[in-house]
Design goal:
The complex is a heterodimer of chains A (296) and B (447). With 296 residues, chain A is an alpha+beta fold. Chain A has two domains: 36-90, 3-methyladenine DNA Glycosylase II, Chain A, domain 3; 100-295, Alpha-Beta Plaits (2-Layer Sandwich). Chain A is 35% helix and 11% strand. Chain A has helices at 2-28, 35-43, 57-66, 79-90, 125-131, 147-151, 178-182, 210-216, 226-230, 255-259, 285-295; strands spanning 100-104, 157-160, 165-168, 188-192, 199-202, 236-239, 242-245, 265-268. In chain A, a hairpin with a 2-residue loop joins strand 6 (236-239) and strand 7. In chain B, 50% of the residues are buried. The radius of gyration of chain B is 21 Å and the shape is globular. In chain B, helix 1 crosses helix 4 (182-196), helix 4 crosses helix 7 (268-280) and helix 11 crosses helix 14 (423-446). Chain B is α/β, with parallel strands linked by helices and 447 residues long. Classes of the chains: A alpha+beta (296), B alpha/beta (447). The interface between A and B is medium-sized, with 15 and 18 residues.
Chain lengths: 296, 447
Amino acid sequence: MKLILISLIVLGLTGLVAAVLLYLIAQKFRVEEDPRIDRVQEVLPGANCGGCGFAGCRALAEACVKADTLDGLLCPVGGAPTMEKVGAILGLAAAAADPKVAVVRCNGTCEARPRTSEYDGVKSCRIQHNLYVGETACPFGCLGCGDCVAACQFGALGMDPKTGLPVVDDEKCTACGKCVKACPRGIIELRKKGPKNRRVYVDCVNKDKGAIARKACMNACIGCGKCQKECGFDAITVENNVAYIDSEKCRLCRKCESACPTGAIHAINFPPRKPAEPAQTENKPAEAVQTKEAQA
Amino acid sequence: MNTFRIGGVHPHDNKQYSAHQPITECPLPEKAIIPLVQHIGAPSQPVVEKGQKVKVGELLAKAGGFVGANIHSPYSGTITKIDTTIDAWGMKMPAIFMDVEGDEWLPEIDRTPDVIRECRLEPKEIIDKVTAAGIVGLGGACFPTQVKLMPPPGKKAEVLIVNGVECEPYLTCDHQLMLEHGEELMIGIQILMRALGIEHAIIGIEKNKPDAIARMKELAQKSLGVEVKPLKLKYPQGGEKQLIDACIGRQVPSGALPIEVGAVVDNVATIYAVYEAVQKNKPLISRVMTVTGASVARPGNYSVRFGTPLTQVVDLAGGVPEDTGKIIGGGPMMGRAMNNIDMPTNKRVSGLLFLRESESRRVEPENCIRCAKCVTACPMGLEPYLLSKQAQMQMWDEMEQHDVMDCIDCGCCLFTCPSHRPLLDYIRMGKATVGGIIRARQAAQKK
């Protein structure tokens, strides 16, 4: 009995002394932290994807709290609603930002791009890109090993077995930009999501001269410049034998789409096409005519 | 018998197909494409114009920098255009296009078969001649030779090591060159020793070439300061750093050049080119390459002028065999599968290997069992299993710390792996990325 009592007292006293010491040390070395950081972090999605350019959600929260304005600070995953919440906590106006989405700018499907060799090595675009031109003759196009799919944390990318190209799911894509960095050929671009997810873009990045590009891939942009002439808003530039549509200037009139002789320009999510398979809609002239009539 | 200390593997040498086949001259093509990138370093700058008539040996392009090489015309004819062509891997490269007309040589080039022994040139004059002739290391790396002959201040060459190892399986062009042009090689060695101001040279030859060892030994007796060293059979003995270790027992430190331990290494084909440049005024316009494989109709060693389409060389060897699975540029260990044999030959192509479908398939990789066979096999003392994993995880800083830049791409790790893991694929990708990071850092520091 005595033994138990002594041990209880000794342990109790030791605990008490330790508690007092810990309290004093904690007071002395306390880290002053803005409580708003925690609150901001709570409204952020917590994906830690790094799409904002910071190391993770906490780092973005710290940056937001320190900043005087929210300009240039954007969580691509949460988008404008999240930034509004952050602005509400901090009493700042959230910067207006257009929601973006990843766009795969290659339409070198299996039918359009004849195979010239068979790649036998590791299934990695990065390695294949370092080694040679790839399984087809196009040195700019998609290699189809799925580095982008592996990089996506949100399950927004998947390979289409039919075309051999990656497909972006508009709903899931948060425009964090991981796939853009993962693609060794720089095919993927973050573009303005557009009203009702409607986008017009050039589905090719081949910088070769028209004849060479066309030989490698039937769907290649040949840099003819027809779309540039057709565009009434100066949105299209042709550089290095490839056209590019500036999503800021584009008014989605789709004149360029019908002008393109190789079908390299894609307009997606326009009625009456079904929006089920974004980024993969075929360029069917009959449908294009229909939509024109519908608009008129 | 000597060999290098760390690592190495023993692939079957398969040299029986093309060994002892006399060097055959490849006929001239009608149209030739001469690539402007045939070496390590900056692309050469063309000095000719469209429509200009040139003779054999005339300068086509000047070296693009200190580490660069001149390119001379291997043919006489008219320049049709200067444009880009596609290399063996489908990538674009700048090139000069020519229509070949006749075979008219520059008058100063000595085309007689006589062996000219006398060389009374000063070292500076020899180096100038080597530079002018556009000679690069013909062992595979294509490093401009004159750079090796000019050691940086404070460094002194002590010994010239002649690389007659040809450790790469299947290839026999260097072997045949030693048998047919031994005398010229000896003179070439003396010229290089004179240029470097040294009195000692060692010829390293693996013991699977006993006739070459005997021939070189016989010639070396008459040649002052030249010693022949038969070496044990082990891949990659032809690697510069491995050969130095095997011949003189010195190890080149990580990241350093052979001159650090007083050695200059040159391949026999390079030395033959030096002989021709210095004694016969003939620039580097052709090389000997091996066309081989189990199913090839006429495997052999062919002397090919640069710019000849590979298809023409292949036709000479009996065409592409029907059961071909892969065509490798170079040997099976270091070479890379090609997807375009329309490309022109250049200083880099030492061989063309036709692997049968059954030989060419890769085995499905399995999990790493941590047996460390790759660590034992790595001749540079690296840890391939770790580096490949780091490359897979994109841990570039860690790769740099683990000396990925020392990797010589020899493929021993991949060859020895019992799980058939694609170790080299990942390491090579990592090495390219880390190399880019280092160059970017150095460029930033300079600014």
